[in-house]
């Protein structure tokens, strides 16, 4: 198998030569390493079904369903993301998936089921670069901070996890690089050692810094695309402005407990 890699800026890479489906462990190790460096991998031309998609994700670890989301019929470990039947466009802010869990997913992937005629792109930030480009005094000020993440926008059953604490500055267990670990303003409820107003100001500043245009890769979906990314070094959001036509994605998340630190 020959794997061809074309890098994107400021984060991401296109990968050819890998078919979405069950993967050999050596291929998985290679893709993990690529994700730890590039953050986002775009696999084009994947004419596969949900069974193949599920087996692909299970090659990376435990595939888990996000409680409160809408499951895909006949593929209950996946959830559907769609604008079909909605009277108003969905809303999205830069975030990482289910950061309110003690062990959030290391990886998230989307399979393009229906691509709109126009718009519907997905945006990704480089959280390695976001940290590296902070002033040294800011890096020192936040290095030991811990953020309390809370659930928002989901109706969870009693007893479900709704809050977790994670370091604001995260060292990736595979690449060893340092990244800012953030989510939406609403989810980042508290910052250790800071008053609420100061904490909110800090999160706002770090989100603005992380999502500046030169730190964002915009993926324009094509039919049969599969995209997988590493939540430990990437934030993402869907751009729902100006979408023309149906947009349907099937999404899966992988909890890689051995690789999460």
Automatic annotation (TrEMBL):
Residues 10-252 form the TauD/TfdA-like domain. It holds the Pfam family TauD. One of its GO terms (molecular function) is taurine dioxygenase activity. GO terms for biological process: sulfur compound metabolic process. One of its GO terms (cellular component) is cytoplasm. Keywords: Dioxygenase, Iron, Metal-binding, Oxidoreductase. Gene3D superfamilies: Clavaminate synthase-like (3.60.130.10). Its EC number is 1.-.-.-. SUPFAM superfamilies: Clavaminate synthase-like. Belongs to the TfdA dioxygenase family. This is Putative dioxygenase.
